[in-house]
């Protein structure tokens, strides 16, 4: 293995064939959009444009479920996570399998019975318009910020290493994505997700294969990682302030998974592109191995990168300015001499951004037309918006959100530290929203006033928890012993950073970031139930009759048996009945 030198930065990193490969990928994505614009229903109806006419097969939906939230930020971040902190993070994949049946058999049936384009229509039927609007606004802000970050983060990393400017990267991905999402609708989004998912796998596996060739065997990659203390998987410490443990990864990862795959508009809309519930449940089950395969291979690619730089860390040697640049730096340094291969990798990174942004654009268009424009039009004009007009407006809305995402991406480069803040917002909003939906589906005591109060408190607490003064994370040791620029240096292996005095930080701000969503969920549930009970006791409103279809199957079955009587909870101990339904999520379903 030849030593890494600073001259590697100055050599040409992106050749003509690399640009050709990248251009072909972007052109192919656009061509898929054009194809679906002029075939089938030609995206003339809302059902065709937003729900793919509900005739999609399981395989493309399963791939799209994975690709919707496995962005370029994930590919770059997970690999650097395993390089910097070790492979403990892969335990989160266990939570995906544990909570898949919860999403498939409790939440998903409710949305299928509803058959509404907007997932937040459920909240209006269960609670009222205020709950629907509050949740919809949270989602809109969340996804708009996230789209900008998804476009900006890979552009930032790639600019320093490939010569592709941030402007070119953001515009090429943003405009291509907006184009095929706007004209091709959900069918184009789903089919390009399949194509882009394969490129994501190709990008990750190219790193593993080259490291395999470089070291001689996969076992040697593992042995190098083991010597660098990066293979530990047995951290069962119950202390919530420890960054990654089995408990934080399973519980925190599970809440994150449910917030994305059980109640998120982006995923719910994908489920509804399949004609029946069983097909949608199969797609969700198939998503698990596909998601896990990409997650594990991306994690191992972090160890593969470490096998090359275990004696010369590019960050310590000042060859790169961010750990997120590790993966593209490795690619151009090891594969740059092979025409087109660096282009294939960058295409995979771009594809990860394309799949995520296109998913968000289509979902935001659905939310805007269903939650904002249609109700407003009905209020002003006193008649429903025609399907034809709605179809045209939806395409325009998708295009507008695409332009907004590009603008947010350019704004992100001026915000500095807010980049991490925006990513944190994406996580902390998910837990409280999951709590709001759970209050509606798992309990009958929850009402609109109490549930919205719980949502506000949950979001506020999670944000305070996430954005407080936090101690810096302690990384594993990294060496510069093998760097040419450091060959005569007396510094061999940097010592791990000295832990900061934890008394300088509030306990809640030292808690692992994985618990942000968990605390937001719990606060929403507890405040929502308590305030709902108090408000019900203090008001003289008549008791409400419940539609069993608005509740999880076990509770719906109980309600149908009592259709001739009002099923409400009237005493404090009966709050336990609502909590029992919530406990069903954790205890009964995972155990079969």
Automatic annotation (TrEMBL):
PROSITE patterns: NA_SOLUT_SYMP_3. Belongs to the sodium:solute symporter (SSF) (TC 2.A.21) family. The chain crosses the membrane at residues 20-38, 58-79, 85-112, 133-154, 160-182, 194-213, 245-263, 284-306, 344-369, 390-412, 418-439, 451-467, 513-535, 567-589. CDD domains: SLC5sbd_NIS-SMVT. Keywords: Cell membrane, Ion transport, Membrane, Sodium, Sodium transport, Transmembrane, Transmembrane helix, Transport. InterPro entries: Na/Glc_symporter_sf, Na/solute_symporter, Sodium:Solute_Symporter_SSF. It is a multi-pass membrane protein. This is Sodium-dependent multivitamin transporter. GO terms for biological process: sodium ion transport. Pfam families: SSF. It is found in: Cell membrane. The keyword Ribonucleoprotein does not apply. GO terms for molecular function: symporter activity. The keyword Coiled coil does not apply. It comes from the Eukaryota. GO terms for cellular component: plasma membrane.
């Amino acid at each position: 293995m030849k030593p890494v030198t600073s001259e590697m930065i100055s050599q040409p990193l992106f050749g003509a064939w690399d640009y050709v490969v990248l251009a072909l990928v972007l052109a192919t994505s656009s061509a898929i959009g054009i194809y679906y614009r002029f075939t089938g229903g030609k995206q003339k109806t809302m059902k065709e444009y937003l729900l793919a006419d509900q005739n999609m097969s399981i395989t493309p939906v399963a791939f799209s479920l994975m690709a919707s939230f496995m962005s370029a930020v994930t590919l770059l971040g997970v690999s650097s996570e395993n390089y910097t902190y070790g492979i403990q993070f892969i335990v989160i994949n266990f939570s995906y399998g544990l909570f898949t049946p919860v999403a498939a058999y409790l939440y998903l049936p409710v949305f299928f019975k509803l058959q509404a384009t907007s997932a937040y229509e459920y909240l209006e039927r269960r609670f009222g318009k205020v709950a629907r609007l509050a949740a919809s606004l949270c989602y809109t802000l969340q996804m708009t910020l996230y789209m900008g970050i998804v476009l900006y983060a890979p552009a930032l990393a790639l600019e320093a290493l490939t010569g592709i400017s941030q402007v070119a990267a953001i515009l090429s991905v943003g405009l291509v994505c907006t184009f095929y999402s706007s004209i091709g609708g959900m069918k184009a989004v789903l089919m390009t997700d399949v194509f882009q998912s394969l490129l994501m796998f190709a990008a990750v596996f190219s790193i593993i294969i080259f490291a395999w060739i470089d070291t001689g065997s996969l076992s040697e990659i593992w042995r190098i990682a083991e010597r660098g203390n990066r293979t530990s998987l047995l951290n069962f410490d119950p202390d919530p302030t420890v960054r990654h443990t089995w408990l934080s990864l399973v519980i925190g990862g599970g809440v994150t998974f449910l917030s994305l795959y059980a109640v998120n508009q982006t995923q719910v809309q994908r489920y509804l592109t399949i004609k029946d519930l069983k097909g949608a449940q199969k797609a969700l089950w198939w998503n698990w191995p596909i998601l896990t395969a990409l997650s594990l291979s991306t994690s191992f690619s972090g160890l593969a990168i470490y096998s090359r730089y275990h004696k010369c860390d590019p960050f310590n040697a000042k060859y790169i300015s961010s750990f997120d640049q590790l993966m593209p730096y490795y690619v151009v340094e090891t594969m740059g001499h092979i025409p087109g291969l660096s282009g294939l990798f960058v295409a995979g990174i771009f594809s990860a951004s394309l799949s995520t942004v296109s998913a968000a654009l289509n979902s935001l268009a659905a939310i805007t037309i269903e939650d904002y424009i249609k109700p407003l039009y009905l209020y002003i004009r006193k008649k429903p918006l025609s399907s034809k007009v709605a179809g045209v407006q939806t395409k325009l809305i998708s295009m507008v959100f695409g332009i907004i995402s590009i603008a947010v991406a350019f704004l992100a480069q001026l915000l500095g530290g807010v980049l991490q803040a925006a990513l944190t917002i994406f996580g902390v909003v998910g837990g409280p929203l999951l709590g709001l939906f759970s209050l509606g589906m798992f309990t009958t005591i929850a009402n609109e006033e109490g549930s919205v109060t719980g949502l506000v408190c949950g979001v506020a607490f999670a944000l305070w928890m996430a954005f407080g003064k936090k101690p810096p994370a302690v990384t594993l040791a990294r060496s510069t012993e093998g760097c040419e620029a450091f060959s005569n240096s007396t510094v061999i292996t940097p010592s791990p950073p000295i832990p900061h005095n934890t008394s300088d930080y509030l306990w809640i701000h030292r808690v692992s970031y994985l618990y942000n969503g968990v605390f937001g969920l719990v606060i929403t549930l507890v405040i929502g139930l308590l305030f709902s009970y108090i408000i019900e006791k203090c008001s003289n409103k008549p008791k409400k009759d419940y539609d069993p279809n608005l509740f999880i199957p076990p509770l719906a079955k109980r309600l149908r048996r009592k259709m001739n009587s009002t099923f409400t909870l009237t005493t404090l101990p009966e709050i336990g009945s609502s909590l029992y339904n919530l406990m069903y999520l954790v205890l009964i379903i995972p155990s079969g």
